[in-house]
Amino acid sequence: AKLSVRDALGAQNASGERVKVQGWIRSVRSQKEVLFLHVNDGSSLESLQVVADSSFDSRELAFGSSVEVQGQLVKSLSKRQNVELKAEKIEVVGNCDAKAFPFKYKERHPLEYLRQYPHLRCRTNVQGSILRVRSEATAAIHSFFKPSSKIKVPEENFFNVPVFLTVSGQLHLEVMSGAFTQVFTFGPTFRAENSQSRRHLAEFYMVEAEISFLESLQDLMQVMEGLFKTTTMTVLSNCPEDVELCHKFIAPGQKDRLEHMLKNNFLIISYTEAVEILKQASQNFTFTPEWGADLHTEHEKYLVKHCGDIPVFVINYPLALKPFYMRDNEDSPQHTVAAVDLLVPGVGELFGGSLREERYHFLEQQLARSGLTEAYQWYLDLRRFGSVPHGGFGMGFERYLQCILGIDNIKDVIPFPRFTHSCLL
Ligand code: 4AD
Ligand code: MG
């Protein structure tokens, strides 16, 4: 039987079953009488130990080569693993020129170094772990929404007409929320961000949800907090080794920081309170905090620290700062909208969302203010034909991975990062 490394390692009472395993050599150790190989196929962090006698030519078996091994799965005598594969046949499928291969056996290469090899870095332990966590988190997010996942918004696709890459699926979700009360989408979105920051990509994945008959920001924030915590707990229980590897070698102390986030209730402050807090500390900033101005990354990070490294919702931003679709709070003299951002340790803004303006006349005014009246007649229509109070949010998936794993640069949590002037692969 053909087994994945993960399944081979999980074999309970290995007692000589004949199996076949395929993968890449992660280490070769040759002793007088025996040869030890470690083979990894991406299914787990741990590699499978293959034991061969000296009749196998170890020169053929280089670090990085792909192999197919047939043999017997047996209990290991060593304490380091439960099972090992006693090789009967080892076939090198593809040789690896180990001298030219950019990664060296047993060396822990920094993430910046690995980033130079987007076509090869997935062969390393650390990238393997990050991508397995990414995959688990994707599945966890889908299952968080599963009971309500009726609709997935299709990609825009036209022939011979100029098309645009979407910056968000929100408006399409709002259309759907006019018939299905809870919808979500999870896919690539695009921004022409001319930014070299460690938290911006030109193509990133966004989880977006839209909920109809939603009465308050409170209800929306509950879903946001639930998404973050449930997804994280699922990931922690489904791939603990991968998470631990990242925590241990990339971000010491991250395990505790994450636990701290999970066990506390997220905090809520208003934009106005946030600005007051920042003003008290303005000597720390390059950009002077001021009511009516956007929060900068440095401000966001300060606020999270100030809140004891617990994620914090900042709500009710000035109307003038936000897009036309956000719901007017009709307060004076500030004049704010029911917007919410979630700021998290290490990253800053992770979620953005709002209640949407469901009242026809308010929306009409806002569209006029933005010069969009003509283009958005269809959007106004949604308020003419059975409008309901609704709201939603978007969560940057790569920033989410950065936040839970403690990874400083967003380019390390997506297999092929696309950003300013860089679309290599
Ligand atoms: O705050 P944003 O721009 O919100 C929206 O697009 C709303 N229409 C979402 C909605 O309500 N349905 O983006 C949401 C999140 C941000 O908080 C951030 O985490 C992430 O998407 N994000 C980026 N991540 C990586 N690179 C970029 N250039 C990003 N821009 C936004
Ligand atoms: Mg935002």
Given helix and strand content, the structural type is alpha+beta
Q: Give the class-level CATH name of the largest domain.
A: Alpha Beta
**Tally the helices: what do you get?**
12
Q: How far is the N terminus from the C terminus? A: 36 Å
Q: Which ligands occur here?
A: 4-amino-1,4-dioxobutan-2-aminium adenosine-5'-monophosphate, magnesium ion
Could you say what the CATH architecture of the largest domain is?
A: 2-Layer Sandwich
Provide mean pLDDT, rounded.
92
* Sheet of most strands: 7 strands, mixed
In the CATH hierarchy, the third-tier topology of the largest domain is known as: BirA Bifunctional Protein, domain 2
Number of domains: 2
H-E order = EHEEEEEHHHEEHHHEHHEEEHHEH
Rg, Cα atoms, Å: 26 Å
Number of strands: 13
Low-confidence stretches: 149-156
Strand content: 25-35%
Kindly state the percentage of residues in helix. Answer: 25-40%
Q: Give me the side-by-side strand order of the main sheet.
A: 7-8-13-12-11-10-9
The best one-word shape is: elongated
Give me the CATH superfamily of the largest domain: Bira Bifunctional Protein, Domain 2
Domain Aminoacyl-transfer RNA synthetases class-II family profile: 183-415
Pfam family, one: tRNA_anti-codon
Organism: Balaenoptera acutorostrata
InterPro entries: Aa-tRNA-synt_II (IPR004364), aa-tRNA-synth_II (IPR006195), aa-tRNA-synth_II/BPL/LPL (IPR045864), Asp/Asn-tRNA-synth_IIb (IPR002312), NA-bd_OB-fold (IPR012340), NA-bd_OB_tRNA (IPR004365)
